[in-house]
UniProtKB/TrEMBL annotation:
GO terms for molecular function: carbohydrate derivative binding; DNA binding; DNA-binding transcription factor activity. GO terms for biological process: carbohydrate derivative metabolic process. InterPro entries: Homeodomain-like_sf, HTH_RpiR, RpiR-like, SIS_dom, SIS_dom_sf, WH-like_DNA-bd_sf. Pfam families: HTH_6 (PF01418). Residues 122-259 form the SIS domain. Signal peptide: none annotated. Residues 1-75 form the HTH rpiR-type domain. This is MurR/RpiR family transcriptional regulator. SUPFAM superfamilies: Homeodomain-like, SIS domain. It comes from Amycolatopsis acidiphila. Gene3D superfamilies: Glucose-6-phosphate isomerase like protein, domain 1, Winged helix-like DNA-binding domain superfamily/Winged helix DNA-binding domain. It comes from the Bacteria.
Length: 285
């Protein structure tokens, strides 16, 4: 970032130069702040902050945050979380605005990085799978449980797993050609995940990867990679971007056979009615 500022400072307006100087002197704040917060700290507008970031060659603030996050090696997740919590306002409106801003940034960047060919290929994998197995560890398991449930509601065979060690071995045994593994691994590639991917390939199963930073590491071992932007502060839901991508995939999948989607939705409503007679809520999706 410092090199970019040095090369392009002559091309910036006075207000943009002020923003660039603040970014250069306070790289740690870039990761922790929204555009509006950086604008207040630099004494300018959030529009000027965004223009400055783009003038420096970044697609937007999320890309700059990722680049600076790698450069500021002393900036740990725990330190980021602590500083972000200390900076947060005390009233409900300020807290809500803070979290909404970060959520919107993550979703907007995830949308920007969603390439058409990769998305279509991912939908093709889901549509052609005899069974889908979603895998994630910790909080990353939750979007995979959601995926499995939504796929079953579309009439497709699906399950999720968060098993590790010897329990994972049992879950891997049924993998076969025609199966698809959806791996949700935001940042860390753990030994269990490596084993999962290797065995899936050996068994002839497909692999769809949802990640922020493991694409370069696993690209040659998976069929499709979709980028889900992670939370730099850890204050917004870990699965936010991954769930957004899953909703996009599920909608695209349902559009390929709207009749089947409607049929299974009606069957689900009928089963709920039988389980809870007289409760109109049972017919809700």
């Amino acid at each position: 970032m410092a090199a970019r500022i040095g090369r392009r400072t002559g091309e910036l307006s006075p207000a943009e130069q002020r923003v660039a100087e603040y970014l250069w002197k306070h790289p740690g704040m870039i990761v922790l702040s929204t555009a509006a917060e950086l604008a207040e700290l630099a004494g300018t507008s959030d529009a000027t902050v965004v223009r400055t970031v783009k003038a420096l060659g970044y697609s937007g603030l999320p890309e700059l945050k990722r680049a600076v996050g790698h450069e500021v090696v002393s900036d740990t997740p725990a330190a980021r979380l602590r500083q972000k919590v200390e900076q947060a306002g005390d009233d409900p409106a300020s807290l809500a605005d803070e979290l909404l801003a970060e959520s919107m940034e993550r979703l907007a960047e995830t949308r920007r990085l969603l390439a058409g060919p990769a998305f279509t290929a991912a939908v093709d994998l889901l549509a052609g799978a005899d069974e889908v197995i979603g895998y994630g560890l910790g909080l990353s398991e939750l979007p995979m449980r959601y995926l499995a449930m939504r796929l079953r509601r579309l009439g497709r065979r699906a399950r999720s797993s968060a098993a590790t060690g010897f329990r994972l071995a049992d879950d891997l045994l049924p993998l076969a050609p025609g199966h698809l593994v959806v791996l949700n691994a935001p940042e860390r590639l753990l030994p269990d995940m490596r084993t999962l991917v290797r065995h899936a390939r050996a068994a002839g199963a497909g692999v769809l990867l949802l990640t922020e930073s493991l694409g370069a590491t696993l690209d040659s071992q998976v069929d499709v990679t979709l980028t889900a932007v992670h939370s730099p502060s850890r204050l917004t839901a870990e699965g936010l971007s991954a769930t957004f991508l899953l909703d996009c995939l599920l909608l695209a999948l349902a559009k390929r056979d709207p009749g089947a989607a409607a049929e299974h939705a009606e069957l689900l409503a009928t089963l709920r009615t039988r389980l809870a007679p007289g409760d109109q809520r049972s017919r809700r999706p």
